[in-house]
Design a protein that fits this description.
Blueprint lengths: L30 H68 L6 H55 L14
Length: about 170
């Protein structure tokens, strides 16, 4: 393939190009200090983005845990009212049964069935609130584990006196 290439200029002691394509690329225009500074700024920007992402992740996990705890508390408060209503309906059924002439058994049965339905709903709501509390605790644990795993790394990365390496360098190729 070298037979198709022009001969080197006279007086030049460089070897003729091989044409195999394995030569080093020419440096980028501007090169030198400008390219190094640009790479450093990019690495600092990458480090800043990663630090922000880490902080945002911790904040989101904490916010989810708090939100779920609040949901569990609201469910308990709401269904505590339903439990009170069930007791009141039972009490009304007892009063109706003690009246003379007594209220018919079908009406009393409907009242007692309504109170039982309310209590069943209360029990399901309490189980749901317990599940939400468990999920909230899981979010807290995930936040703590994430902080334990990556907190020291994030602190070290932020404390570095040299620019962080470009993360694209470490990607699988």
């Amino acid at each position: 393939m070298t037979e198709n290439l022009p001969a080197p200029a006279s007086g030049d002691n460089l070897p003729a190009p091989s044409g195999s394509g394995d030569s080093l690329p020419a440096p980028a225009s501007g090169g030198g200090l400008a390219a190094t500074a640009s790479g450093a700024v990019g690495a600092i920007a990458d480090a800043a983005v990663m630090a922000v992402q880490y902080t945002v992740m911790l904040a989101k996990l904490a916010a989810a845990a708090i939100a779920l705890r609040n949901v569990g508390a609201r469910v308990r408060e709401t269904y505590a009212y339903v439990g009170d209503c069930a007791r009141n309906v039972d009490h009304l059924a007892d009063i109706a049964a003690s009246l003379r002439p007594a209220v018919d058994p079908a009406t009393l049965g409907e009242h007692r069935q309504a109170a039982n339905t309310m209590r069943g709903s209360l029990a399901r709501a309490c189980r749901m609130a317990d599940t939400v509390d468990t999920i909230s605790a899981t979010f807290d644990a995930a936040r703590q584990a994430h902080q334990a795993d990556y907190g020291p790394v994030a602190e070290q990365a932020q404390a570095m006196t040299v620019p962080m390496a470009n993360r694209n360098f470490y990607r699988s190729r």
